[in-house]
Predict the 3D structure of the following.
Amino acid sequence: MNVRIFASFLVAGTLAGSAFAQGSLTPPGAPGPTMKTLVQVEPRTAITNVPYTIARPGSYYLTASLTSATHGVTIATNGVTLDLMGFTLTGNRSGSGQGVYLYDATGAPIRNVTVRNGGLRGFGYGIWAKFSQGSRFENLDVSYNLFTGIYLDGLGGLCDGNAIVHCALATNGVNGVRLDGSSGQCSGNLISDCSLQDNVNDGISFSAPSGRCNGNVVSGCAIGGNGEHGLSMAGSSGECSGNVILRCSVVGNVQYGIYCLAASSGQCSGNLFSECTVNGNATYGIVFSGSGGRVAGNAVVDCSIGENAGSGIGLYSAKGNRVEGNRIYDFAGGTRYGVDCVASTNNLIVCNSSGGPTYDYFMSTKDVYGPVVTDVGELATNGVSAHPWANFSR
């Protein structure tokens, strides 16, 4: 027992001595900063005057709203982020300069550029992106420019894989957005959640008088009040094919809501228009015209089409298209059709509902279509009114 007591005292003393040997617990001073500044995280270059040319990759930003008689900012290299910081670049509407100009004098493509958060007004083009690839334009107000708001230029080259997102494009002197595949390609681009209002010509224009304008997507956009068409696809001697127009509102345009044209040797084929509202346009709702070219394999599915002054859906010299599950109603004009087929062949027209025009359906004898049910009251559970592909006239 005495040995155990002695050992306990010995351990306690050793621990006490060890504790007293730790030194002062008082901090040597105030703690230093551990957070990095924004400049350390993402080094950025301020733009304090224009015109300004970006020749090196990196991040740039405006410090104030600025005005230029020529270009605003020219981007001549890859890998650039330009943040307008809520400010506006303004031109003098002479047409001599672009708000933001993506352009390499050697003709090389400009890749991976982002332009965001601000306004571009009073230039020839708000944004002119020459041979741009994989670039993004977001949260921009691009208005009151002399020509087009945002111009994706593939004239003689490639302008692919770009995105225009959450932008307002209004009151521009030609189009809100133009995708140009003339003698080149402007394909695989995205236009999403944008407002395109009151532009002098089209809200959105896909142009391929030669070359290709294929596989683009327009989603969730409000397209209205434009002086010609809401959205047009023109494949004169080229292709506007495989594009997708999804959940858009195309309302109150002066000519057609949606216009797909293939003239000469061109084609406008394999496009999808789904879940769109096409209302109150001053002529037709949706028109496919293959006069001289090929308009085939397109689909109009689950759309609401009403109160247009002309026919709801027109298929003119169009082949093998699908019109399915649409609601077509209330027309503002005279003798009009819900679905109008002239010189058309092999189109499939099923499960639509039309009521309001003088004639709900005018189908070619060479088209394929479900029976037209005109019954009122409770529908029968067998016969024509129960046909799975029936079109309804009411």
Remarks:
- Residues 2-20 form the longest helix (19 residues).
- The domain at 148-393 is CATH 2.160.20.10 (Pectate Lyase C-like).
- The chain is about 5% helix and 40% strand.
- The CA atoms of residues 48 and 63 lie 6 Å apart.
